[in-house]
Amino acid sequence: MPGPVERVTKGVFLTIACALVVLPFLGVVSTSLASPERVVDAGGFVLLPVDVDLTAYRMIFAGGVVTQAILVSTFVTGVGTVLSLTLTATLGWALSRRGTFGNRPLLILVLVSLLFSPGIIPSYLVVQRLGLLDSLWALIIPTSVSAFNVIVVRAFFVRLPGELIDSARMDGASEWQLFTRIGLPLSRPVLAVVGLFYGVGYWNAFFNALLYISDASKWPLQLVLRTYVVDGNQLGAQDLGAAADAMPPQTSIQMAILVVSVIPLLVIYPFLQRHFAKGMLTGAVKG
């Protein structure tokens, strides 16, 4: 057993590590909730708000560019995650059925795509030829299938008991029934983890929007975050759909956008956490 000195050292180290993680986020939330006067007096960063003011949040939800970006990100994340899970699960099941037509060449193609990725220019030309420029589908279709996630799901399906599959076949189950009534119900943990990966990827993606979307009304939240927070561009009253005399400091608005971009992930993750370790360990075992 560790001695008193070792336990104290670990406690101090963990406390410092937690403080380094929590304090910046606490400052972001506090700055977004602080009154305009408090933000100005503190030089733009408030660690603990004395008086709570929700003006910054009312501004970003007033129907302007930020509100539109939240709706775009919600649509892209929701539709993209469902589409990606559907394609990944069906492809993983098909690749797990050894001996089926085209199984091995398709598996090799998936494995090769792990090693080689297309460049920016070829990807842009493909999206352009498909007529997806300035379309929200340009944020979904090019990243709808991840080869890594397909391999993880395939590995899970490969490990399903062969006796279970054979018994269902003897009872007259078709391949589609095997997939929907046996494969999918048993694969909920791994699909929950893969869905989390896809959802986080769609919600946090901004580079594809930067390449393919020129209409600001179709920008996702992360591109708005990059434009007005990271790059430091000013959000005017016309961008927020609010009156100019009611504008809070830019720092408060920027921190509020940052909080809104993080909250969905913080809310969803605890519900999927119990599946995370089980899903990854189950799906990653060599099949």
TrEMBL record:
<feature type="transmembrane region" description="Helical">
    <location>
        <begin position="69"/>
        <end position="94"/>
    </location>
</feature>
<keyword id="KW-1133">Transmembrane helix</keyword>
<feature type="transmembrane region" description="Helical">
    <location>
        <begin position="137"/>
        <end position="157"/>
    </location>
</feature>
<dbReference type="InterPro" id="IPR000515">
    <property type="entry name" value="MetI-like"/>
</dbReference>
<feature type="transmembrane region" description="Helical">
    <location>
        <begin position="106"/>
        <end position="125"/>
    </location>
</feature>
<feature type="transmembrane region" description="Helical">
    <location>
        <begin position="12"/>
        <end position="34"/>
    </location>
</feature>
<dbReference type="Pfam" id="PF00528">
    <property type="entry name" value="BPD_transp_1"/>
</dbReference>
<keyword id="KW-0472">Membrane</keyword>
<keyword id="KW-0813">Transport</keyword>
<feature type="domain" description="ABC transmembrane type-1">
    <location>
        <begin position="70"/>
        <end position="272"/>
    </location>
</feature>
<keyword id="KW-0812">Transmembrane</keyword>
<protein>
    <submittedName>
        <fullName>Carbohydrate ABC transporter permease</fullName>
    </submittedName>
</protein>
<feature type="transmembrane region" description="Helical">
    <location>
        <begin position="253"/>
        <end position="272"/>
    </location>
</feature>
<feature type="transmembrane region" description="Helical">
    <location>
        <begin position="190"/>
        <end position="213"/>
    </location>
</feature>
<keyword id="KW-1003">Cell membrane</keyword>
<comment type="similarity">
    <text>Belongs to the binding-protein-dependent transport system permease family.</text>
</comment>
<dbReference type="InterPro" id="IPR035906">
    <property type="entry name" value="MetI-like_sf"/>
</dbReference>
